[in-house]
């Protein structure tokens, strides 16, 4: 909540503080990325609050009755309701699907009840259905994008752009430096897994910005250069090399870095609790 509040404050502050910018602020990749960071953090607060509210009402526990489910299924769903499996948010409708499908798979047959493998198959596959909701998917995609591009913005700004500018304001520090701090804090405390193939999402996001930047530049090829010497189509060789390098090296590198942080979280959990992360 604190990180979301600060991100929202910094985003509003940037627009209030910058007077008569040379280009509309929303043309910059920095602002695009900070906006996504703000949306992600604020959305995470609401999603988490919703989960806590639903858990406190006991809705997710409504299907976890021994009279309805066998012991194995009850155990899995009880893990969902108590948060042991890091399931996030269980919709009532999905919970009904769990009961229906589990009952179908483990119902008695003319030759006796189904075996334990059927129970485990039913509960494990359906617990995944109830785990992932559309709002979880949205926060995950936003995180995949901003985890990579917040760090790219920081590295490119302080490594290539700031030396030529020669000054750094409080607003610049917020959107070019604090953004990465907020991302790293989130990366170390969040319970969401990291998938290497999700590097596709920041790559697509970067492609969208390159297309936008190119179209914007065509309207005024002399003045509509947002990132001189980095993303400047008046020097297509340098710009193309930067884009290729970012796509083939930068994005995969930062995705691997976050994957390493994820593996570190799993290791710490195992060292503390003596077991693998449930679910």
TrEMBL record:
Residues that span the membrane, as ranges: 32-53, 134-161, 173-191, 198-219, 239-262
Annotated keywords: Membrane, Transmembrane, Transmembrane helix
One CC-aspect GO term: membrane
Superkingdom of origin: Eukaryota
InterPro entries membership: Rost
Protein name: Protein rolling stone
Source species taxonomy: Eukaryota, Metazoa, Spiralia, Lophotrochozoa, Mollusca
């Amino acid at each position: 909540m604190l990180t979301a509040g600060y991100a929202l404050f910094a985003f509003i502050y940037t627009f209030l503080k910058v007077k008569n910018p040379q280009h509309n602020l929303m043309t910059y990749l920095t602002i695009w990325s900070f906006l996504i960071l703000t949306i992600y953090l604020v959305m995470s607060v609401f999603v988490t609050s919703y989960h806590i509210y639903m858990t406190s009402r006991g809705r997710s526990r409504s299907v976890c009755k021994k009279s309805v489910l066998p012991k194995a299924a009850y155990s899995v769903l009880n893990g969902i309701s108590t948060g042991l499996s890091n399931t996030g948010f269980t919709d009532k409708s999905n919970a009904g699907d769990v009961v229906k499908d589990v009952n179908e798979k483990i119902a008695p047959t003319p030759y006796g009840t189904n075996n334990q493998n059927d129970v485990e198959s039913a509960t494990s596959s359906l617990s995944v259905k109830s785990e992932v909701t559309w709002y979880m998917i949205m926060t995950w995609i936003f995180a995949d994008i901003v985890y990579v591009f917040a760090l790219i913005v920081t590295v490119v700004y302080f490594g290539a752009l700031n030396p030529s500018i020669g000054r750094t304001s409080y607003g610049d520090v917020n959107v070019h430096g604090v953004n990465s701090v907020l991302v790293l804090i989130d990366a170390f405390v969040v319970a969401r897994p990291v998938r290497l193939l999700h590097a596709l999402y920041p790559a697509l996001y970067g492609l969208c910005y390159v297309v936008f930047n190119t179209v914007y530049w065509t309207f005024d090829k002399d003045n509509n250069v947002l990132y001189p010497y980095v993303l400047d189509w008046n020097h297509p060789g340098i710009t193309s090399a930067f884009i290729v390098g970012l796509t083939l090296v930068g994005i995969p590198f930062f995705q691997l870095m976050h994957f390493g942080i994820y593996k570190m979280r799993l290791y710490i959990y195992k060292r503390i609790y003596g077991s693998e992360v449930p679910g």
